[in-house]
């Protein structure tokens, strides 16, 4: 039987019991319906994971006793970040979930001209919190030892202004280059820029190129927004990562 993995928000301290609250407690008591004595794997995002045993489960917290630290690293040698044009509902959730499974280090949700969902203020922050929860669940399921961060929503122009140094690739069906034409030397950091439903408009593509992006196309068929970035990520991992 597979041992469930649970992310804990506070750093795990060797020799101390771990108290699970919030999302971790909900996962243990409501989703798993775990009982006292059950074994769990805990990770705090700093690397590795801990074998632990649940010593108590109460309405306000569960208490886990640490058994052994497992110094495993399942993170990709390729640091890639996804700048995803926000799509509707389950499409965005699906993209985020699978991107975490594929090893994404950070997600930048971006508003574009063709973004249907309009997010501002408190609504924007609540949606980001929801997406972070999706990322947390995917990290627990997929064996990640570092929790990817979902950043606050930005306009595409703001993303160009704020992003750090690294290779930026934009998915563009009109581009000449394909991923197999990129250098075999692994870059230190890759930003993958994928559009929402309908893709990027001409001005956004032009702005991306003006900001140093390299355009890549994935093939002769047009992929949906929830598919395109994931296909590109898998190809990048095959070229520069651990696939």
Indicate the topology.
Elements: E1 5-7, E2 18-20, H1 22-31, E3 39-43, E4 49-57, E5 62-70, E6 80-85, H2 89-101, E7 106-111, H3 121-142, E8 149-150, E9 154-155, H4 156-162, E10 167-171, E11 190-194, H5 202-210, E12 214-216, H6 225-240
Parallel strand pairs: 1-3, 6-7, 6-11, 7-8, 7-9, 10-11, 10-12
Antiparallel strand pairs: 2-5, 3-4, 4-5
Helix pairs in contact: 2-3, 2-6
Coarse structural class? alpha/beta
CATH homolog superfamily of the largest domain? SPOUT methyltransferase, trefoil knot domain
Number of strands: 12
Tell me the count of domains: 2
CATH-defined fold name of the largest domain: Alpha/beta knot
Taken as a percent bin, the fraction of beta residues is: 15-25%
Question: Quick one: biggest sheet?
Answer: 7 strands, parallel
Number of continuous helical runs: 6
The stretches of 5 or more residues where confidence is low (pLDDT under 50) are: none
**Radius of gyration (Å):** 20 Å
SSE sequence, one letter per element: EEHEEEEHEHEEHEEHEH
Describe the structure in your own words.
By secondary structure, the protein is α/β, with parallel strands linked by helices. It contains 6 helices and 12 strands. The protein has 2 domains: 66 residues, Hypothetical PUA domain-like, domain 1 (Ribosomal Protein L25, Chain P); 161 residues, Alpha/beta knot (3-Layer(aba) Sandwich). The strands form 2 sheets. Strands 6, 7, 8, 9, 10, 11 and 12 form a 7-stranded parallel beta sheet that branches. A 5-stranded mixed beta sheet has the order 1-3-4-5-2. The longest helix is centred in the middle third of the chain and has 22 residues. The protein is elongated, with a radius of gyration of 20 Å. The model has no long low-confidence stretch (mean pLDDT 94).
């Amino acid at each position: 039987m597979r041992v469930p993995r649970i992310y804990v928000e506070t750093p795990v301290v060797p020799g101390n019991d771990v108290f699970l609250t919030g999302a971790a407690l909900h996962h243990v008591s409501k989703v798993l319906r775990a009982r006292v004595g059950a074994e769990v794997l805990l990770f705090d995002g700093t690397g590795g994971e801990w074998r632990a045993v649940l010593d108590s489960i109460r309405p306000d917290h569960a208490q886990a006793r640490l058994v052994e630290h497992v110094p495993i690293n399942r993170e990709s040698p390729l640091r890639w970040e996804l700048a995803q044009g926000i799509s509707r509902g389950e499409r965005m959730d699906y993209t985020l979930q699978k991107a975490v499974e594929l090893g994404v280090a950070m997600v930048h949700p971006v508003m574009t001209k063709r973004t249907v969902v309009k997010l501002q203020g408190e609504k924007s922050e609540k949606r980001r919190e929801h997406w972070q929860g999706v990322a947390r669940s995917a990290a627990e399921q997929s064996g990640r030892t570092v929790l990817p961060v979902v950043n606050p929503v930005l306009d595409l122009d703001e993303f160009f202004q704020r992003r750090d140094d690294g290779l930026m690739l934009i998915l563009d069906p009109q581009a000449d280059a394909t991923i197999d034409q990129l250098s075999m030397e692994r870059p230190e950091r890759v930003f993958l820029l994928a559009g929402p439903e309908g893709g990027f408009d001409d001005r956004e593509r032009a702005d991306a190129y003006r900001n140093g992006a390299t355009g890549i196309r994935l093939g002769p068929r047009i992929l949906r927004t929830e598919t395109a970035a994931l296909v590109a990520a898998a190809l990048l991992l095959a070229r520069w990562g651990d696939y």
